[in-house]
Amino acid sequence: MATISRPLPGQVARPKASTGLWRDAFGRLRKNRLAILGLVLVFLLLMAGIFGPIIAPWPYQYQDLKAVAAAGGGPLPPGSPGHLLGTDQLGRDLLSRLLDGARISVTVALVVQLVILVIGVPIGALAGWFGGRLDNLLMRLTDVIYAFPDLLFIILLSVAFRDTLLGQAVDGLLLVFVAIGLTSWVTVTRLVRGQLLALKETEFVEAARAIGVSDSRIVTRHLLPNGMGPIIVAVTLGIPGAILAEATLAYIGIGVRAPRASWGTLVAEGQKFIRSEPHLVLFPAIFIALALIGFTFLGDGLRDALDPKLKGKQ
Amino acid sequence: MSAEEPGRRNVERKAEHLLQVRGLSTHFFTPDGVVQAVDDVTFDVGYGETLGLVGESGCGKSVTALSIARLVPDPPGRIVAGQILFDGIDILKLDDDEVRKLRGKEIGFIFQDPLTSLNPTLTIGYQIAESIREHMGLPQKAARDRVVELLSKVGIPRAKDRLNDYPFQFSGGMRQRVMIAIALSCDPKLILADEPTTALDVTIQAQILELIQTLSSEFHTAVLMITHDLGIAAGMCHRVNVMYAGRIVETGTVDELFERPQMPYAWGLLDSLPRIDDVRGDRLRTIEGMPPLLIRPAEACRFNPRCIYARDVCREKEPSLTSRGTDTHMARCWGTEPGGWIS
Fold this sequence. Notes:
The complex is a heterodimer of chains A (314) and B (343).
Chain A: H1 21-30, H2 33-55, H3 65-70, H4 94-130, H5 132-147, H6 150-160, H7 165-168, H8 173-184, H9 186-199, H10 203-210, H11 215-226, H12 228-251, H13 263-270, H14 279-306
Chain B: E1 19-30, E2 33-45, E3 50-54, H1 61-68, E4 77-86, E5 89-90, H2 96-102, E6 107-110, H3 124-136, H4 140-153, H5 159-162, H6 172-184, E7 190-194, H7 202-219, E8 222-227, H8 230-236, E9 239-244, E10 247-253, H9 254-259, H10 264-271, H11 312-316, E11 322-323, E12 330-331
Parallel strand pairs in B: 3-8, 3-9, 6-7, 7-8
Antiparallel strand pairs in B: 1-2, 1-4, 4-5, 9-10, 10-12, 11-12
Helix pairs in contact in B: 3-4, 3-6, 4-6, 6-7
């Protein structure tokens, strides 16, 4: 083995500390200003969702009737003493209700994506890995789901199960999560299937087979991590869709039950006073917009960070 | 390398030869027809022996190796006939799970392209440990120690520091060393090396070949060395099989084959090597023509369209592998058989 290089002691300088894919990606993400803005917005939303009810000046259902009566019976405008963003006509503090709504939005964002991952990844992986007839069957199933009008399906589901245990759970929210999740796993499934179809032909899969790694291990340890980037991006970019879907449903009166209110409910309620008290619509709308922008910017940034080759090509 | 090294110096022999391939035929069922990539191939690999399998692209070398490991993609490929006895076990009769337990443990595989054969998202340490974990069931600490030992054995400096590195932090030659470490990780009895140096430059090639040679003799591992480079075959192998169009056309020890080749194709291969005493400006010699398509090959010598010595008999009947003076030397050629017209 004389030809094998023998580094002289003390002469080998390691060029760089070992960095993984994820640290590299984070380095690129950090250089992207919009993504950082998105990250900050998402972080604020998360904090509001977790700590909102603690820092809120009032309980969300508390009616400050005295203040409303003193002001002449209508909603208090922003900047009123004790009510930074004003109140609605029942004297409920808008800021407190928005903070509680943030919790709903965050939960929607996370739980729906979780449902999507739990359904979408296994189906996509099965279809992509085995191919053939199973692939055909599963893909036709996803086509059916994809072709079905989402909103109609969610509304049907919500109405049909409204009075069951499922419909009552978590102020009616659980049903909404499940309904939104059930209609939107298709994208992730197709993505995972496509990733697996491409990756299973790679040589490192053949190499893994050649050392006797089992199929399930190849899929979970070799293929999914390689296809993880696009999946993360799809999930992040799917979050604003879920938040918006929940707000839409709440706006038309499906989902969360009074006295809890999601941002969509607040917009719907405030709409009645849009001429005299525009702040009742404006603030919830701004919150929704900021949350959507935050996740979208973060998603775009993640896409560039996880696949630097794509950058500037869209 | 310490004394308590767990090598298998004295291999327990369960059969006369480690690997006995009998009448192996692997066909690919394509829309254009059945491609007879490997057709009635028979050979043995002894315990600890290095056997070369040489031939030009598409002659069935790799498919032979894939068949032995039962890795032929199905569909479209299928082993349609033959028997592969590995250490007395009939590989073609095992179910998928049993084959999986054999792969990596008893049969190691070194692939052609180390750049794409390692998973870019997993660390080197993980990928070497994978086979150890899968087959030997060592606890994590012991598996780690084994990985470090393997890495230093294949000549990776500061092995311990490099466990958590990713493939992109390794050069091509080092990645091939890692592939060799993976192939050796469970002390296999046989290594299938499918053109292990083709993707590497010449100096690294020499190092890798030397490494395979050293380790195979140290562990008494048999190697099936697939290559199109006759120089590699001459330098590394005990015996060599020459394949052409899915068949073995000549087999013999290195000395026999290189000194007295008995088949015009083997001459052609030897003759097409550049030589140190070539006159400058001379053209490299080639074998005219192309290898035949392997869909419905004619009942004739498969080399006859390119053979300058071909006679009518070559176009009418296929010769069989017959002895050329010694037990080990056989060729498939009418012209060089006793009483033939080529001498």
